[in-house]
Amino acid sequence: MLDRPDISLRAIAPTPLPVGDLVRGKPAEHVADLVPRLFNLCRAAQIVGVRMALGLPIPDGVDLSADIRREHVMRLAVMLPSRLGLDRIGLPIDWSASQTEALIGPDGFPATPEAFDRYLDSDTGIAPLLRTIASRFAPGEACTNALPTAQGGTTLNGAAQENSVAMRHLDHPVMVWIEDTYGRGPLWRTAARAIDLQAAEEGRLPAPELLAPGCAIVPAARGSYAIEARTDNRGRVLALRRVTPTDHLLAQGGIMDQSLASLPRAKHDQALLLVDILDPCTPLKLEEPTHA
User: Fold this and answer.
1) How far apart are CA 47 and CA 283, in angstroms?
2) pTM, two decimal places
3) Helix (H) or strand (E) holding 16
4) Three-class SS of residue 98?
5) What is the spatial distance between Cα 11 and Cα 112, in angstroms, rounded to a whole number?
6) What InterPro entries does UniProt report for this protein, alphabetically (predicted)?
7) Which of 13, 15, 237, 248 is most buried by a 10 A CB count?
């Protein structure tokens, strides 16, 4: 019965590209150039991650913070307002100026719950966007439990984890307040993106990390990007594996599953907004399970 309130949507992703098979046996330098071309998002993170894992130098001009900043700005200023029928924010975008000031306000993101409450009542920057998102989802809707946080080597595990922008700011006082008040849902995740934008502009993002030879973890616009690679003594790639924030997002029992499961059927018309907020790096098909 389609009117059953307990029916939840599920997300269907396309079959992932077999990157390991495509690059096996190829020279490391060729693979380092190829992988970022195969995927059109988070290019800087892919360049840095693949080259670190393969033991290759990182070219001049590859800027992780600029890449992350750009993706956050486009989602906060253009994509989410458009989805919600709001005016786009801060256009035309002046990339030479502070986007924290342009999109959030001259004082940056509120530092306390009290300041955030006042900010939500204002028309400054993304305040109307955050206020509208808060109005679309009641507390507990489209939320997740507190999943294990992707840290270091656990990022290479494909099981459900909190591998997202939010994991970088779990202890921010406003994030703690939103989690306690609304849950780990759309408002929590959108606020995290704004906080992360400010962190990117202030140089406070985590540094790329080489956990071991052939294993790199790199900050990206959706969380942490992990690459594991092995080469032979001729510099040819024997194996390469990518684990992305979207892999964890779409893992069984992960962020997407839990968020859709806690979205009431009466609000399935908000599912595309939810997906835009969760921001997978691959197109998804949403469908209701077939019930006998």
Assistant:
1) 22
2) 0.94
3) none
4) coil
5) 35
6) NiFe-Hase_large (IPR029014)
7) 248
Residue burial 189-209, b: 16+ Cβ < 10 Å; e: rest? bbbbbbbbbbbbbeeebeebe
Provide the residue range defining the domain that includes 97: 10-280
Give me the DSSP letters along 109-154. Answer: S-SSHHHHHHHHTS-STTHHHHHHHHHHS-TTTT-B--PPBP-GGG
Let me know if residue 289 belongs to a domain.
no
142 and 185 Cβ atoms separated by less than 8 Å: yes
> What are the residues facing 229 on neighbouring strands?
240
CA distance 116 to 134: 13
Q: Does residue 288 fall inside a structural domain?
A: no
**Percent of the chain scoring above 90 in pLDDT:** 91
CATH (domain of 183): 1.10.645.10
Closest by alpha carbon to 214, among 160, 157, 156, 162?
156
Q: Are 222 and 164 in contact (CB under 8 A)?
A: yes
- Domains identified in the chain, total number: 1
